[in-house]
């Protein structure tokens, strides 16, 4: 058998497997969100304007939804479309978490103020990460690190 068509028995995953995993991951995530919201598949189908069979296939990882479909599903689940985009691998996970998100959506701040706050916040996070790696150095006790 040629190398292109050889079965991989090592357990390693190739690019095709990773795409399939993304489909399963987003499907699992949508199912978890739906169950948490206590919404049936049929109800979400109506709320999102997506056919019941198609939504079922998405949840089972058989179909990978487009960004537009994810946006409709997010609306039906009343969650952010960005959260679904991150789960689906369309967007990278934002760095910083809820603090960064809160700064970005605060309409009382100008874009310049937001950027300054984000820069300061990130500098504190970097400094704290450096402090943790220094205090975790071998041969240094917690008391010496303080």
TrEMBL record:
Q: Where is this region: Disordered?
A: 127-146
Which PANTHER family does the record match to this protein? HTH-TYPE TRANSCRIPTIONAL REGULATOR, METHYLPHOSPHONATE SYNTHASE
Organism field: Tamaricihabitans halophyticus
InterPro entries (UniProt xref)? Cro/C1-type_HTH, Lambda_DNA-bd_dom_sf, TransReg_Diox_bact_type
UniProt KW keywords: DNA-binding
Q: What is this protein called?
A: Helix-turn-helix protein
Keyword check for DNA-binding = yes
Q: Which GO terms describe its cellular component?
A: cytosol
Record domain HTH cro/C1-type: where: 30-84
**Highest taxon in the source lineage:** Bacteria
Molecular-function GO term, any one: DNA binding
Which PROSITE patterns does the UniProt record give? HTH_CROC1 (PS50943)
Q: Which residues form the signal peptide?
A: none
């Amino acid at each position: 058998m040629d190398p292109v068509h050889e079965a991989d028995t090592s357990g390693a995953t190739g690019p095709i497997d990773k795409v399939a995993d993304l489909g399963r991951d987003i499907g699992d995530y949508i199912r978890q969100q739906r169950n948490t919201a206590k919404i049936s598949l049929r109800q979400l189908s109506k709320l999102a304007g997506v056919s019941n069979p198609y939504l079922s296939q998405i949840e089972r990882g058989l179909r990978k939804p487009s960004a537009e479909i994810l946006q409709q599903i997010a609306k039906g689940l009343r969650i952010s479309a960005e959260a679904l985009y991150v789960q689906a691998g369309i967007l990278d996970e934002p760095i910083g978490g809820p603090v960064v998100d809160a700064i970005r959506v605060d309409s009382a701040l100008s874009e310049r103020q937001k950027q300054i706050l984000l820069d300061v916040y990130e500098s504190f996070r970097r400094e704290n990460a450096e402090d943790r790696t220094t205090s975790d150095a071998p041969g240094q006790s917690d008391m010496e690190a303080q």
